[in-house]
Amino acid sequence: MGWLWAIIVGFVLGLIAKALIPGKQHSPLWLTTICGMLGAIAGNAIAGAFGVAETRGIDWSRHAFQLVAAIIIVFLVDMLYMATLGKKKQQV
Fold first, then answer.
1. Alpha-carbon distance 30 to 18, whole Å?
2. What percent of the chain has pLDDT over 70?
3. How far is CA 63 from the centre of its chain?
4. Burial of 39: CB neighbours in 10 Å, binned 0-12, 13-18, 19+
5. Can you spell out the DSSP letters for 36-91?
6. Which pLDDT score, from 0 to 100, does residue 88 have?
7. Calpha distance 37→70 (Å, rounded)
8. Half-sphere exposure of residue 74, counting CA atoms within 13 Å on the CB side?
9. Quick one: average pLDDT of 31-52?
């Protein structure tokens, strides 16, 4: 059940990150989901380093770290995707 939640959270974080980044992102949905999952993992690690990983109630600060990490990762991976695979697709 943990993997299912990781995929769902990664999907949602990736979509939110893609919506917040200005311009059009060309990376496919599966890559966005993986980036969202990586953002969730990185955000949890950063929240743990700041000591806010576990709080009473809803962990808003942890979710904020996850979202910021997902935005950065989606942005960087989309740039890398366009630099490598995106040019090949545009030529075809």
1. 13
2. 90
3. 12
4. buried
5. HHHHHHHHHHHHHHHT-SS-SS--HHHHHHHHHHHHHHHHHHHHHHIIIIIHHHHH
6. 64
7. 8
8. 33
9. 91
* pLDDT score for 87: 63
Q: Which amino acid is at 70?
A: A
What pLDDT does residue 51 have? Answer: 84
On whether the CB atoms of residues 69 and 36 are closer than 8 A, the answer is: no
Structure tokens at 45: 């690690």
For residues 85 and 1, give the distance between their C-alpha atoms in angstroms, rounded to a whole number. Answer: 33
Sign for the pseudo-dihedral over CA of 56, 62, 63, 64: positive
Whether the predicted pLDDT of 1 surpasses 60: no
